[in-house]
């Protein structure tokens, strides 16, 4: 079943001769449960694509459908709530709150939504990501790989339809980076999550179910 789709998705900056086509008529379709890697050179448009898919920025024209919802038809408040409930994000820089411990960081998106966490589900994520003995630790007391695992747990906590990972191994050494990607793949399979991962690392991209290549704002392989 299709979970994510774009129709003629475009993002342009500037006008006339100075126009930059960061994305140009992008059409992709992603099935529920797929683990997708999006690859391309620096400036190819892959991060812009991820931001569009997650509703972090609005398109110049074109559409993004998440679970059948045209996200750009929503106003800013509606999109914020939809994003918090339906899309999990994993960023290169982890984006953990330094004054919150591991457990508090993981359940933060749930608390922002004003609902109680599913404790059994949260505990299963924590156990699967080998974070059980770190739940009371602050982010500064964790290694980079451990912080990224916390970020993955936080992305999974709301049971989103899609997880978008933007260069999740960019700040990690080779060993830690490989571990994080394998954990993402494992969590995708275990919790039936659809994952779209931006990466410049061809070796890491090969672990995905399918690779989408983008150059100069256009998809050249899907």
Which key terms come to mind for this protein?
222 residues; alpha/beta; Rossmann fold; 11 strands
Regions with little confidence, pLDDT below 50 for 5+ residues: none
CATH superfamily: P-loop containing nucleotide triphosphate hydrolases
Oligomer: single chain
Query: Helix-strand pattern, N to C?
Result: EEEEHEEHEHHHEHEHEE
Number of strands: 11
- How many structurally independent domains? 1
Output the radius of gyration.
Answer: 17 Å
The helix content, as a percent range, equals 25-40%
Assigned CATH class? Alpha Beta
Strand content: 25-35%
Largest sheet: 6 strands, mixed
Task: For the record, give the distance between the C-alpha atoms at the N and C termini, rounded to a whole number.
Answer: 17 Å
**What is the molecular shape?**
globular
CATH architecture: 3-Layer(aba) Sandwich
- Structure class: alpha/beta
The CATH topology is given as: Rossmann fold
Helix tally equals 7
Spatial arrangement of strands, main beta sheet: 7-8-9-4-10-11
Average pLDDT for all residues: 90
Give a short synopsis of this structure.
The chain has helices at about 45-55, 75-85, 100-110, 120-130, 145-155, 175-190, 200-205; strands at about 1-15, 20-25, 30, 35-40, 60-65, 70, 85-90, 160-165, 195-200, 210-215, 220.
